[in-house]
Amino acid sequence: MNMGEYTVEVKKLAMEIMGAITEGLGIGPTYLSGKLDEGMQVMTVNCYPPCADPGIALGLPPHSDYTCLTILLQNSSGLEIMDNEVGAWRAVPDLHSVLQVHVGDHLEVLSNGLYKSVVHRVALKRDKTRISIASLHSMGMDEKMETAKELVDEHHLKGYKESSFRDFLNFLSKNDIAEGRSFIQTLRI
Ligand SMILES: O=C(O)CCC(=O)C(=O)O
Ligand SMILES: [Fe+2]
Fold first, then answer.
1. E strand residue ranges, the chain
2. What predicted TM-score, i.e. pTM, was given to this entire model?
3. Which domains does the chain have, with CATH numbers?
4. Which residues, other chains included, contact 89 with Cβ-Cβ below 8 Å and sequence gap of 6+?
5. What is the pLDDT of residues 1-26, one digit of tens each?
6. Ligand 2 centroid to 23 CA: how many Å?
7. What is the DSSP-derived secondary structure letter of residue 145?
8. What is the pLDDT of residues 86-132, one digit of tens each?
9. How far apart, in whole angstroms, are the C-alpha atoms of residue 127 and residue 76?
10. Torsion of CA 90, 81, 133, 37, to 10 degrees
11. Which protein residues are within 6 Å of ligand 1, measured from CB?
12. Which residue range or ranges hold the Fe2OG dioxygenase domain (predicted)?
């Protein structure tokens, strides 16, 4: 499969998974399908060179993705995920030909916090180049993601402000995520 075909297939998968998630949330399998289908798919190909002293450097600083979903393919281990219950990093095992699905900030907003966006980072290897391909799925540039009204009531107050992909880009231009500022924190009410 070439990159173009992969891009098309991974989008279909993202649409299916989001349909299953919104169905599971009780807001129906097509709740977001139109806006997601017409929305943005950003493909990033990341190359992490070997590092003589991996203890003092990171491939990618801790962050969560602004997306609804991110689908990731990696050629070797290196990705680490924050385990919020214990406040420790967990290495994602090196599983061959496996796609990882990350919950992004906008799914946390949509679900009123029932899904939590995953904080992740990439560690470097002493003797190995690591390559990953991430497919980031979100609505259009100026489409505002709002918490589903069906998931808000007097016992479950609305926990998030609405935001768009452009709002995230504006945040990025003014803040350094390497210093720990996170977009989702600015959305929490
Ligand atoms: O290289 C990876 O495994 C993660 C890439 C990533 O987090 C991103 O592109 O947002
Ligand atoms: Fe990421």
1. 40-48, 58-63, 69-74, 79-83, 88-91, 100-103, 120-123, 130-138
2. 0.94
3. 39-187 (2.60.120.330)
4. 80, 81, 82, 83, 121
5. 899 999 999 999 999 999 999 999 99
6. 25
7. B
8. 999 999 988 888 999 999 999 999 999 999 999 999 999 999 999 99
9. 12
10. 140
11. 44, 46, 60, 65, 72, 74, 79, 120, 122, 132, 134
12. 38-139
The helix/strand/coil state of 148 is: coil
Cα separations in angstroms, 120 against 18, 84, 89 = 20, 11, 8
ipTM over 0.90: yes
Sequence-distant (6+) residues with CB within 8 A of 143 are 35, 39, 164, 165
Quick one: tokens of 49? 């060179």
CA atoms of 181 and 184, how far apart (whole Å): 9
160-163 contacts, C-beta under 8 A, 24 or more apart: 160/108, 160/109, 160/112, 160/113, 160/187, 160/188, 160/189, 161/186, 161/187, 161/189, 162/109, 163/106, 163/109, 163/187
Phi then psi dihedrals of residue 185, to 5 deg: -60, -30
Nearest to 152 by CA among 189, 101, 104, 179: 189
The rounded distance, in Å, linking the Cα atoms of 74 and 182 is: 24
Length of the chain: 189
Q: Can you read off the two tokens belonging to residue 94?
A: 């090196």
Mean pLDDT throughout 139-154? Answer: 97
